[in-house]
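Example record

The entry below shows one chain as it appears in the dataset: sequence first, then structure tokens.
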Amino acid sequence: MSDKNFPPLGFSSVAVHGGHHQDPNYAHLTPIYATSTYVFDTAEQGMRRFSGKEDGYIYSRWGNPTFTEAEEKIAALESFGIKDGNAQLQVKGILHASGMAAISTMFLSNLKAGQKILTHFSLYAGTNDLCHQILPDLGIESVIMDLRDINKAEDILKKDKSIAFLYLETPANPTLQCVDIKALTELAKKYGKKVGCDNTFATPYLQQPFKYGVDFVMHSTTKFLNGHGTAIGGILLGSDLEFMNGKATKMQRVLGGNSNPFDAFVLINGLKTLHIRMDRHCSNAMEVAKFLASHKAVAKVNYTGLDSHPDYAIAKKQMKHPGAMMSFELKEGLEGGVKLMNRLQLCLRTVSLGTSETLLCHPASMTHFSVPKEQRERYGISDGLIRMSVGIEDAADIISDLEQGLQ
């Protein structure tokens, strides 16, 4: 909004208008700025921009007007209604080519050889691979534990002084395990550790980690923020503006993890309907979860909206709604899961999540195939587990497809 006297906008209005700056040619939408570089009015202006004395675009690996709207819109949503003292919390976002690019920037700009990450089991497989297969070669190790046990988490922080970063993914992929963001962040701050949180499954519409004092939030924007499966992307957000404008920005630029103008454009347009889509995703998911939990062929449903889930109370405390993601096991195990997936007529057999369509996948052989079997099973990812991203179709049609598939 251009009028500073206009009252604060609601979440839905921020999703539509946040981050938008009037295009100099008066285009209704921020255009796709398909350019690699930007012209300077004078040689002196170029010098000022490179030195940091003047704001402005230089090269699209470093920034682009289409990126800027997406970054500012997501930052406004993640910080919506959160105060820093008497003022609105200020958050900086850096758009990336993928969620993995964003998390890489976060870890590599915060950690050095000899330091460790404290995190929990049942992480996204790409994150798990980064922690176990890539970072150790750089001298950065990960400590994995059940972070729902606050006392044990404190014991580890007391004993292992090399832990420098606490990393949370809640709800976690694909077991929907939840951890207490507030309690863990307070604990980390007590021992001088930084905290990052993957908010992909929840989105800022359902959960705002900055409210609990985390330092960083990241997303795979490919999922619910885009909402239509039209582009790959990621974002890293931080509340320490000096760090984000300095070390984090430098890391992203040097590693070359930038987004591209087309992907940023479709992300902006997806964000405008986030609140509407999430309401439908969530209401559908609750109906589907109740159906599965009552079906004779189903052995277990992992959905934090059901009081049978071990983390029901934590999710209820920190989330507006349990969300659109769930996983379940059939009594026939892997064989039953394969039969169900092959019988689907409306729902889609595919990886990823957060699109308008209902998507099912088999984590053990698909999204988490790179995780060793022993490790998977310890994390609760059995061979018979099916992950489901509930879409925005009519709930009755989703249930009808599952019902015929389970016969």
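Notes for this example: The chain has a mean pLDDT of 94. The first helix runs from residue 11 to 17.
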